[in-house]
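Weekly puzzle thread! Below is a chain. First person to post its structure in token form gets bragging rights.
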Amino acid sequence: MLILSIRTDKPEAELGLFNNQDRLKYITWPAHKELSATVHTKIKELLSSINKELKDIEGLVIYKGPGSFTGLRIGVTVANTLAYALEIPIVGTLGEHWLKSGIERLLSQENDEVILPFYGAEPHITKPKK
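Winning reply:
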């Protein structure tokens, strides 16, 4: 099973490709405020580096939090959209061993279907100025 992992909760974003539990390729980059502009390109580059395309992805693991409000929203939205469009399973995980846990869940044929971000606290959203 070709698995794409996504982690976007901090300024340095992470993407990984796995064949079952074997790591094929893993990248990190300083995405910070450019995450929404770079994440799609980085996914395409990652897949191209092993001669694969989006259609080859068979499962997704996403780190769902806690972490950056905007970073989590972007990563979770990308993951949910890919899972829906490709009709593949998706699992969201937390904690230090999020990746191992997520891959194990996918290989056990689990599917969360839709992931919601976990911020660890209520988000601090400022009210719009009039």
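Puzzle host: Confirmed. Bonus trivia for everyone else. Helices lie at 35-48, 69-86, 98-107.
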